[in-house]
Amino acid sequence: MLDINTIRNDFPILSRTVYDRSLVYLDNAATTQKPRQVVEAITDEYYNVNANVHRGVHYLSQQATDLHEEAREKVRKFINAKSTSEIIFTRGTTESLNLVASSFCDEFMQEGDEVIVSVMEHHSNIVPWQLQAAKKGISIRVIPMTDEGELMLDEYEKLFTERTKIVSVTHVSNVLGTVNPVEEIIRIAHEHGVPVLVDGAQSTPHFAVDVQAMDCDFFAFSGHKMYGPTGIGVLYGKEDWLDRLPPYQGGGEMIESVSFEKTVFERLPFKFEAGTPDYVATHGLAKAIDYISAIGMDNIQRHEEELTKYAMQRLSEVEGIRIFGRSPRKDAVVSFLVGDIHHLDMGTLLDRLGIAVRTGHHCAQPLMIRLGIQGTVRASFALYNTKEEIDVLTEGIKRVSRMF
Ligand code: PMP
After folding, report:
1. Is the pTM of this model over 0.90?
2. CATH, domain range 40-293
3. Do 4-30+296-403 and 40-293 share a fold?
4. How many C-beta atoms surround the C-beta of residue 123 within 10 A?
5. pLDDT tens for residues 331-389?
6. What are residue 380's DSSP bridge partners?
7. Ligand 1 within 6 A of CB of 103
8. 4-30+296-403, superfamily in CATH?
9. What spatial distance separates the first Cα and last Cα of the chain, rounded to whole Å?
10. Where is the Aminotransferase class V domain (predicted)?
11. Nearest atom of ligand 1 to the alpha carbon of 174
């Protein structure tokens, strides 16, 4: 059992009001709130340590470098990577996915080669491949799903051809909450000699991830969705793959030596980290990892599973509700529509009751097309949410429904 009251006290924003009502924050799949421990670490670093990292000989620079590199080790441990060489800091999941799409295509894909993605991808795992399609003539093949929101693995197997060069799938859908069987997806891809990139934006906040056990070749996630700062994310890659990929961007920090005749790139992971990194955000991310590790990922998972089950049960009471995503492996996200009430109307009126949910296509328009809808209302949970908040949501939805 989590001590929710103590946890909520760590998040000052949760006790504020909106429109004179207690805030019920259920937009965690978009971004989570930050505990004091993270915010204070960031402030403290700016007040007391701030200096650019890596090449400075002076005291502050070395201290900032230590914090930055300690954060890399924390991330390594958090996802159980073999080595810190495999942990690349980026601006977020989107940048991590773009990095792989761009560098992988540059090195390993020719016109006519294929990438496999799924129908439930976030735009950030579709558009980077489309950019490569426009540039290089690669093509994109799509794993379909069932009406319950589960990927069809038999159809997936049929998508492989001799031109398949990489598979890129989301670990958890940000709309349906489906936890995809990535281990199985990876095993099948590896049987075809094809590497797999996993979008972990919606898994890392909710359950323990072990990249070695999963055996993914690349794994991307964002700090801000797991109680860390915005603007910082991670790309994990197996060293063997990262060694073979060309740099994504050029500049300072990513080189060993530069002359107009020849430039030698830095070793991993720095080869992929051009420019001054957000070393304060990496420290903030490390504090977020400390925070959730102290609570225990298993405890967080148990609590959120209970919340999700409770939400499915309570929301099913609402007359005329359609819930999208009914896989038994569902995580912390409930998307729905009620009757013919527009998602935007529902979201706007819930907001007036102090309930923050997200409405729209959730950056997954191909999934909306598959579902035959324009958008949904989405409630998404974090470790600090309570069953009482789900009751408030349920009553809110009923109240709004009565207005139409
Ligand atoms: N993938 C998924 C599944 C997501 O939910 C999100 C964020 N909504 C992203 C990628 C993109 O993450 P970011 O905006 O932090 O780069």
Report:
1. yes
2. 3.40.640.10
3. no
4. 15
5. 999 999 999 999 999 999 999 999 999 999 999 999 999 999 999 999 999 999 999 99
6. 27, 333
7. no
8. Aspartate Aminotransferase, domain 1 (3.90.1150.10)
9. 39
10. 24-393
11. 5
